[in-house]
Amino acid sequence: MCVAVLAGTILAARISPQQKTNKVEQGEARLILRQVEATIEKNYYDPTFHGFDLEARFKQADQKLEEARDLSTGLGIVGWAVEGLNDSHTYFIPPMRNVAVYSGWQMQAVQDDCYISAVEPSSDAWKQGLRPGDQVLQLESYQPTRESLPAINYRLNILYPLAEYQMVVASPGNVARKVKTKSEMVTFAQTTNSFTGGDSRHQLDRIREGYRLLSKGRTAELTDKLMIWKLPQFDITQAEVGRLVGVARKHQNLILDLRDNSGGGEEQLKWMISNFFDHDVTVGEFVERTKSAPLRISSRHDATFKGRLLILVNGSSASASEIFARTAQLEKRGTVIGDATEGAVGRGQVFPLSQGESIIVAYGAQVTIARLRLADGNLEGKGVTPDVLSLPTLVDMAEGRDPVLAVAAHLAGVEMTAEEAGKLFPAVWATH
Predict the structure, then answer these.
(1) Comparing C-alpha atoms, which of 200, 193, 305 is closest to residue 248?
(2) How confident is the model at residue 359 (pLDDT cuts 50, 70, 90)?
(3) What are the pLDDT digits (tens) for 382-406?
């Protein structure tokens, strides 16, 4: 989680065609490119790069750097070079700057198209008329689809968060329109480039804590029949998992809402599985660069939740949340409801990189060091197909309804309307 927060604080500038080339920054970008390439070559789990010509891609990127006018443009080329590998857990982490960017809106895929799923009421995006349920036809120069959305999120949330976003959207029942939204930008003091100074470190910690609100789980208990546990990320302590499972054991059914869950720690995944399966589970096999090792998880046996388990997923459910959902399917432990998941599964490791002496510029690369192979194959690029397909409509999103949760509650023997379900867990926004 911290990596995403740190990387997300880079502010991208729009480059003027008249801007002169900065040869010093161009050289810095070239050094970063070489370091990132060497890091991937040394640590990627598959030394053949699944048939991809990594060397040729980075040579092409080196040639592109000849046209890079400054470091910002060069960083985009480094990101482009790594994207060629088409691996969800391998990407370039750019240097951090002292501006955090908050767009005020969220986007998700529903089947093959992309929609605004939430808008912060206090944001400029809300003032400009952007609303949940708006289909995003164009965002900057991109046409968002389920397939392209992960790359777009990386470029616009990590590589190039923008002070202003231009998009074309269509509200339910209306023609397409152009919308321009301004991001909120929070500047914090930069005492050193590595952010070890007092004031900047304090402010950065506040931003981290603000983002942690997004990963905090929430629950709702509806009679002894049903408990709902919304878990936005596998970022939870072992004690908290045990406590909430203890509460869930008082109910006949549990809806575990993993929609928009981007994954998280491997240890947290193990804790979750150990509390929901009454027997030891071999989830799959981690294929590493020189060896393979099974992922075996011991059950807590009598302390596990033994009731009916209903798991909600969508197109933004990724990584650990996908592994949990698919394991529940393979072990016939739970019913998966919602939309197909993202298909972004791997064991990634962050490798810190830097350059400079008196002034240190820090950046990094996350590299997939192992791929998890389940009993029926890999989830990377495929995702999990739900047992019960259930999707919100544009009108549902616009009106704040949650028909997917309502369907799951019905399966658990509890009746609630989509309107009632939509009010249980309103959108949460990072504080700063």
Answers:
(1) 305
(2) confident
(3) 999 999 999 999 999 999 999 999 9
DSSP 54-103: HHHHHHHHHHHGGG--SHHHHHHHHHHHHHTT--TT-EEEPPP-SEEEE-
Instruction: Quickly tell me which residue has 């152009």 as its tokens.
Output: 178
Backbone angles phi, psi at 337, to 5 degrees: -125, 140
Distance, C-alpha 391 to centroid of its chain: 20
Question: Are 119 and 167 in the same domain?
Answer: yes
Question: What is the span of the domain harbouring residue 130?
Answer: 99-186
Pair (166, 244) in one structural domain: no
Same domain, 290 and 410: yes
Query: How confident is the model over 65-119, as pLDDT tens digits?
Result: 999 988 889 999 999 999 999 999 999 999 887 788 899 999 999 999 999 999 9
End-to-end Cα distance, the chain = 16
- Could you tell me the CATH number of the domain that includes residue 166? 2.30.42.10
- The total domain count for the chain is 2
> Is residue 236 assigned to a domain?
yes
**At 294, which CATH number?**
3.90.226.10
Q: What is the mean pLDDT of residues 35-45?
A: 98
pLDDT tens for 249-293 read 999 999 999 999 999 999 999 999 999 999 999 999 999 999 999
Question: Could you give the residue ranges of the DSSP H alpha helices within 353-402?
Answer: 394-399
**139, 167, 186 - which closes a domain:** 186
Q: How far is CA 335 from CA 242, 306, 386, in A?
A: 22, 14, 8
Residue closest to 12 by CA, chosen among 104, 83, 76, 88: 76
Residues 305 and 397 in one domain: yes
**161 shares a domain with 107:** yes
Residue 192 lies in a domain: no
Q: What is the pLDDT of residue 243?
A: 96
Instruction: Decide: 383 and 322 in contact? Cβ < 8 Å.
Output: yes
Asked if residue 159 lies in contact with residue 75, where contact means CB atoms within 8 angstroms, the answer is yes
- 411 and 279 in a single domain? The answer is yes
Pairing of strands 308-313, 334-338: parallel
The CA-based dihedral angle spanning residues 266, 268, 273, 276, taken in that order and rounded to the nearest 10 degrees: -170
Indicate whether 179 and 217 sit together in one domain.
Answer: no
Whether the CB-CB separation of 107 and 116 falls below 8 Å is answered with: yes
Sequence-separated (6 or more) residues with CB below 8 Å from residue 219: 227, 228, 229, 230, 244, 247
Average pLDDT for 210-225 = 85
Q: Would you place residue 46 in the very low, low, confident or very high pLDDT band (cuts 50, 70, 90)?
A: very high
Residue 173, both tokens: 């029942």
